[in-house]
Design a protein that fits this description.
about 25% strand, 3 strands, alpha/beta, about 90 residues, three-stranded parallel beta sheet
């Protein structure tokens, strides 16, 4: 486990990486959300969140379903801000 290798007693910020519409089923199926809550309750992680790569509607649904998530890392490229293929 990372905590053993680093000698740290806890992880400050734990990031679930790359959530999108194609893989959210795996996070739900394997109980990842409950596992994060357990790790936090045990004091092994202080905060948890996820990086997100999908639509605003999907993000809103995720945050509604998991209000305990404390941060979200968004992929935003200002060069594509007004690109009609992306917006």
């Amino acid at each position: 486990m990372s905590l053993e290798r680093t000698g740290a007693g806890y992880i400050d910020f734990y990031l679930l990486h790359g959530i999108d519409e194609g893989n959210i089923g795996n996070f739900n199926r394997y109980g990842i959300w409950d596992y994060m809550k357990e790790l936090k309750a045990e004091g092994l992680i202080r905060h948890y969140g996820f990086s997100f790569h999908s639509t605003p509607e999907h993000l809103e649904q995720l945050l509604t379903d998991h209000p305990d998530v404390e941060f979200v890392q968004l992929q935003i490229n200002y060069a594509d801000w007004e690109d009609p293929l992306i917006c």
